[in-house]
Amino acid sequence: MIGSHHIIVETKKIKYEFDIKRNITVIRGDSATGKTTLIDLLSQFARFQGRTGVKVESDVPCVVYADGLISWQEAIKSVSDSIIFIDEDYGFIKTKEFASVIKNTSNYYVLITRDYLKCLPYSVNEVYGIRNSGKYNFPQRVYNEFYPLYDDVENKKISAKCLIVEDSKSGYQFYSVAVPDISCISADGNANIYKKILSLDTKDGCYVIADGAAFGAFIDKILQLRDMGYKIGLILPESFEWLILKSKVVDINDLQKILETPEDYIDSRIYFSWERFFTELLEKGTSGSIAEYHKDELSQYYLEGKNREAILNTVKLFLEE
Amino acid sequence: MLKIFYGTVEENLYGPAWFNNNYEQEWFEDTFVQDMVRDVDKTSYKEGEVFESSVLGAIPPEKLSGGVKTLISIYKNPTLVFDATSCGDNCAIWLQKIGQKEDITVTLRYAMRFEEINDFEICLLNTNSIYKDKKEFTLAALNVIDEVL
Q1: What are phi and psi of B119, to 5 degrees?
Q2: Tens of pLDDT, residues A97-110
Q3: In this predicted complex, what is the ipTM?
Q4: B67 at the A interface (CB within 8 A)?
């Protein structure tokens, strides 16, 4: 499935309105914000359609997973081109098997959970809380909306002596050369960033550059370190390849359109995470040219002169002045 | 004291469902329970088994949030071990308050943000250490979570 899907769920007393635009969306946050009520309403609608006073508007079917006569694996495989909501405390969503089952399916998944789902590559931009906006004839009718929990985590410039980079390949190669006045360290994977920060002298401060497209499971611990006084500057572009594409240093057909609404081009059946789409787009789009991109070894094309500066300027856009 | 084990434990109790099958009406007459419900759910206790939600109107106990159901279950049954993952950050202060009244043990699968309060005291069961400083506890808890979750 591709695209952004606008969903409205409403009764006489309550209304939810939100958009789902990636294969994995996570809902978490405080108690009593209406997560379970949303699931209850969607379940009622799935079972009785409009006969209970619940209205659901969506251009694709919204399905709620529930225990039944068949296994969760079979239940998921029996649905296609739908948005599947899974309520909290179905432990299977934490497993590698769940990741394997939902990979390459045509569904989008909305997971209500406070667990850190390390097996799933979900974006920091698709972790939401639910809040009551109160703008819909409150208190007669309550209007609930999703809000991104990590919308404003990229912070102001800090003085830092080192830069922790998620990967050990092209991104690390770039920053090692392009930012020579700061010590560049590879964490060798997003799961290792937390430990890497702790291994540093906390007074010196550090920047962290990670692929936002798959950092959803790891960001909370980093933010809690920052809340405790660790000087951490977070830079979370979709991926390093996205940064290059965004920097306009390569010429690829329809690139601007793709970057404006990636969800219209990234099919959940093919790409488990957006970072894989951007890598493939860059690799194919530069193949055979002077800018030919290889993740394992970054071409000099990106490491020199105005191209290097253009990419660095895009990085700086993530930092408030 | 509040004692916390971070990790997945199969034998612990799932508060939202356990509460539905075990609550007793007299629990709701306890002002501490009423305060928790009012603070977390923005819901006030009326009488019998009726609450008044600011969103849903009159509701039965089964319609309280999973978080507050778990808090009430813990408070009224301090010898049982519940999974407090059903509780959001807005329940943290109440877990701490219950822990100041009773010895309670809960499990958690995420880094709940606890509050800086007087007489802060939490036992981290994974390392069998007692912390009286929020920052020290948080760092120790994050390290455990990074290893086990």
Answers
A1: 60, 40
A2: 999 999 999 999 99
A3: 0.95
A4: yes
